[in-house]
Amino acid sequence: MSRRPVRRFRELGVAWPPVGTRIVMRRAVVLGGSIAGLLAARVLSDHADEVIVLERDDPDAHGARPGVPQGAQVHVLLHGGRVQLDRWFPGFSEGLLADGAVLSKDDAIHMYVDGTLKVPVADEIVSASRPFLESRVRARTLALRNVRLIRARARGLTFATDRVTGVRYTAEGDPADAIAELPAELVVDAMGRSSRLGDWLEEAGRPRPPMRRVGIDLGYATASFRRDGAPLGVSTVQSVVQPGAGRRPGVCVLTAVEDGRWSILLSGFADDRPTRDPEEFRARCRRLPPFFGWVAEGSPMIGPVVTYRQADSRRRDFHAVRRLPAGLVAVGDAVASFNPVYGQGMSSAALHASCLSAYLRSAPSLAEPARDYFARVRLVVDAAWQTSTTNDLALPHVTGPYPRGFRVAHRISDLILRASVTDAEINHRFLQVTHMRAHPNTLIRPGLLLRAMRADRGRTAEHP
Ligand SMILES: Cc1cc2nc3c(=O)[nH]c(=O)nc-3n(C[C@H](O)[C@H](O)[C@H](O)COP(=O)(O)OP(=O)(O)OC[C@H]3O[C@@H](n4cnc5c(N)ncnc54)[C@H](O)[C@@H]3O)c2cc1C
Q1: Measured in angstroms, how far is the CA atom of residue 57 from the centroid of ligand 1?
Q2: CB of 253 closer than 8 Å to CB of 76
Q3: Which domains does the chain have, with CATH numbers?
Q4: Using one digit for the tens of pLDDT, what is the confidence trace for 98-116?
C-alpha cells in the first residue's frame, strides 16, 4: 500500500487558511454558483483581481431551486467538508449554528448497521437543510470585495490556439440568441453533474474528458416533520442496511435541522425506490430503528414527500485528457458525482477548492494546461469513488464495471464496517474515512485489519 496518497490527502484536508497567496491573474470566471462554484470563487479571490460567478438561478431564491433539484433532499455535511468551510470562511460553522443549524454530539448521534446500534464514539454533526447551508456559503463568498455574481446562462467557451480565453453567455432577461463574451485567464466549470463542458470542448475540435459510470438506480425520498414534541435525546440517526437475504439495502437518515424541523431521508434501489406516498413513507419509517417511526407517526408532516432519482455515479477523468486546453479547470459534481447516500458531494467540492488553492499557490504557468490541478483532484475523486463504488458494486442489481481487485477490496470494506459496529477504535478510523478526513488506504493497514478480524470474530460469537 502506498503511503503517498494518504499523506497528500491529509495535506489537502488541512484546517488552516493558506498564507502568502498572491495575485496571478486579472480575471477568473466561474460557471455555476452552487457549493463548488462558490468555494472555487473564494479560493480564486486570493489569486485574481476579479472573480465573476455566472449563475442561471436567482441567488436570492428561498428553498430548493431549479439548478440544484437535489436541494430538497437531506444533505449531510461530513467533517471533511465542515473543516474546509471553516478554513475558507473562519467561524463558518459557528455562524451556521447561531443562525439555527443543529449540533448533534456524541450520545445524540445513533448509527445503526443492519439494525444493530454501533458503539458510540466522540462525534459532532452540524445539520441544516441544503438551501440554508448554501445561502450562508453564498453570503460569505459574495461579501468578498473582488467577487461578484452575474445572473446568466453560460453557453460556451472562447478559444485561442491551445487555451480557453473566456466564456460565451446569455444574461438573465436577454433573448436566448443574445450571446455576450467575457474574457478570462481561468475558466472554472462548476455546472454540476450535467455540465455541458464536454460538448463545448468537442464542438471546438478537442477531446471531451472520458466518463466512467456505475449504474446504481437509486431512489431518494425526503420529508419534513415538526420538531416540537418531547425531546428524543437524539438529534441524528443513521440506518445502513447492507445487501443480504431478506434485506432491503439502503441508507436512511433522521436529523434535526433549522426552523424546528426534523428531516427524514429514505433511500432504496431499483424496485425498492421510495415513492411520494406519505402513508408508504410512514410505513417504511416503522420498519427502521424506533426513532424514525416515532417522528414519522408522532409529528405532523410539513409539506409533501419529495423524491429524487439518480441513475448512476459518474466521474469525468480530466487527468486522462491529452490535449487539455490551458485556462480551464473543473470542480465539484462537474468532475465527479457519487451515490449520495455517502454524503460526499459537498465535501468533495470543498476539497477540490483546496486542490485549486494548492495549484495556484504553486505559481503555475496559466499558459499551460492545469495538469497539476487535475492530478490533485484525481486523488480526491479516487478516494471518494473507492468508498462509494466498493459498496455499490456489491449490490445485487448493480452490474459493474468491476475494477481489478474488487472482491478483495469489498471483503476488506465489509470486514471494517462489521468490526466498526462493536470496536470504538475501528469505528473512529472508519468515520475518519467516511467523513473524508482520511484516505481509504488508512483502513488497509495490517494491524487494523487484524484488530477488525478479532472484533468481527467476537461479534459473530456473541450473535451467531
Ligand atoms: C439526492 C441527493 C442527495 C445528496 N446528499 C448529499 C449529502 O448528504 N451531502 C453532500 O455533501 N452531498 C450530497 N449530495 C451531493 C451534492 O448535492 C452535490 O455534490 C453538490 O451539490 C455539488 O455541488 P456543485 O456546485 O458541483 O453542483 P450543483 O450543486 O449541482 O450546482 C451546479 C450549479 O451550476 C448552475 N449551472 C448549471 N448550468 C449552468 C449554466 N449553463 N450557466 C450558469 N449556471 C449553470 C446550476 O444552476 C447550479 O447552481 C446529494 C446529491 C443528491 C442528488
Answers
A1: 12
A2: yes
A3: 10-90+133-212+313-386 (3.50.50.60)
A4: 999 999 999 999 999 999 9
